[in-house]
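User: Hi! I have a protein structure encoded as tokens and I'd like to know what sequence might fold into it. I'm fairly new to this, so please keep things simple.
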């Protein structure tokens, strides 16, 4: 028999527990009597009743009640009675249970609310409303962009692009719904570049502009990123809105500094190239936001060049129309006048090309084109190879130098005064000295090598001085 109070195993015939002294059986009332719910027991005359668990029992005079006998521990002679404390049933346990239940209910309700707040529908709706309100910074926070380092996909670039190309719009109603056949929709718009392993969905925004009854539709892609909100909920973002891939945005002369929306293009996005013997750098941003961007090109000795370009519509291509600043134009004009005088004097004196090759670029010297033109000029001025005059003197005045259509082309205008010995024709003719004054108009191309500007062509040809 096991003690109902402490659980100690006792002998079957034991009345009291050997461990705690609790009474094991009632010698006067059996368990059947104790459990006979609703039955009435009677007493002898003078017998006192007692209560147990809502039932009425009766006892002999001087006999302890059943409850008292259950609570009275057995004691040895001279031993103090052992009284077991009563178990108090307070409201603390009930209050604790109530608090736990309320906490579970609150946590469940909070989870549902947070789950709705982070749902793709809510993210798309919040992004769309921010865009319509012109809150570009808030809208950017709902966006996800292609992985990698893309300087032109920063928040500030997004704000700049939106301020230049978008306007806020008021609306009277809007509804967001998921497009069921997202896969087919995405294939039609595969240019958005969603990663293959990404979970995505397409949402349709149906809205009515304010003061209009016409409904309009917009489609937005949402993707689930790898990150989790509070380690539980999927984090949904709007995929790369207004974003377009750009391989080569524009090409500019080597040595230029390029800024797009006041952000200087880093060197890692520049690639050098050579076209028609001219060195360029290609701007390869990778990704940009659609819409007009302000492009600024700066180069030493040149005027800043400004333009607007939209990567979604077209690429500006190669930019050559840089103009020298006024100070540099004047400096090159003076150098051009000196170079022309040096070339003409050397040709009249029948000097070799190497005596003036320091006026020319290395490329023009290697190609020998400038040398060929100079040799023909020298022959013309000295009456060789069938030319009928020998230039005795040449004077250039009223020189006017203008920067041409290309960045290093200069148009040289002025007056040329020549004195020449002309050969007579036939046995009756005599050689004679003649003077002639005429205007001339030639084109000179300069390129910068190191810190010096040098001719890239021979500006004076035999046709420019020949007498007819």
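Assistant: Happy to help. Inverse folding works backwards from shape to sequence: for each of the 468 positions I chose a residue that suits the local structure. Here it is:
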């Amino acid at each position: 028999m096991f003690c109902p109070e402490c659980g100690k195993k006792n002998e079957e015939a034991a009345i009291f527990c050997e461990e705690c002294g609790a009474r094991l059986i009632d010698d006067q009332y059996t368990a059947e009597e104790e459990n006979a719910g609703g039955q009435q027991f009677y007493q002898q005359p003078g017998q006192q009743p007692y209560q147990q668990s809502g039932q009425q029992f009766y006892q002999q005079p001087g006999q302890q009640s059943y409850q008292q006998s259950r609570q009275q521990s057995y004691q040895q002679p001279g031993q103090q009675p052992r009284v077991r404390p009563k178990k108090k049933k307070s409201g603390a346990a009930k209050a604790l249970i109530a608090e736990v239940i309320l906490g579970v209910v609150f946590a469940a309700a909070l989870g549902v609310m947070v789950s709705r707040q982070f749902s793709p529908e809510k993210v798309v709706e919040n992004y769309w409303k921010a865009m319509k309100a012109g809150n570009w910074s808030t809208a950017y926070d709902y966006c996800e962009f292609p992985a990698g380092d893309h300087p032109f996909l920063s928040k500030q670039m997004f704000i700049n692009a939106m301020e230049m190309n978008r306007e806020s719009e008021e609306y009277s109603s809007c509804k967001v719904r998921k497009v069921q056949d997202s896969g087919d929709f995405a294939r039609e718009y595969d240019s958005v570049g969603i990663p293959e392993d990404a979970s995505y969905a397409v949402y349709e925004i149906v809205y009515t502009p304010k003061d209009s009854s016409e409904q309009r539709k917009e489609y937005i892609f949402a993707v689930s990123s790898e990150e989790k909100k509070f380690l539980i909920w999927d984090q949904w973002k709007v995929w790369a809105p207004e974003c377009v891939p750009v391989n080569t945005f524009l090409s500019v002369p080597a040595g230029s500094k390029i800024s797009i929306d006041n952000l200087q293009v880093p060197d890692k996005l520049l690639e050098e190239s050579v076209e028609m013997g001219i060195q360029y750098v290609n701007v390869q941003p990778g990704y940009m936001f659609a819409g007009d961007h302000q492009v600024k090109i700066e180069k030493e000795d040149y005027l800043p060049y400004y333009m607007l370009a939209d990567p979604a519509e077209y690429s500006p291509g190669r930019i050559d129309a840089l103009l020298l600043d006024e100070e540099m134009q004047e400096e090159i004009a003076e150098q051009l006048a000196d170079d022309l005088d040096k070339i003409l004097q050397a040709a009249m004196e029948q000097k070799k090309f190497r005596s003036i090759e320091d006026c020319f670029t290395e490329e023009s010297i290697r190609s020998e084109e400038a040398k060929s033109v100079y040799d023909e000029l020298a022959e013309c001025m000295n009456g060789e190879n069938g030319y009928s005059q020998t230039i005795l003197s040449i004077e250039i005045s009223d020189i006017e130098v203008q920067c041409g259509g290309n960045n290093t082309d200069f148009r040289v205008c002025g007056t040329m005064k020549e004195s020449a010995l002309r050969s007579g024709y036939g046995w009756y003719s005599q050689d004679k000295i003649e003077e002639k004054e005429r205007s001339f108009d030639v084109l000179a191309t300069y390129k910068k090598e190191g810190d010096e500007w040098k001719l890239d062509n021979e500006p004076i040809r035999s046709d420019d001085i020949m007498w007819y």
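A useful reference point when you look it over: DSSP finds eleven helices and 21 strands in the chain. Feel free to ask if any position seems puzzling.
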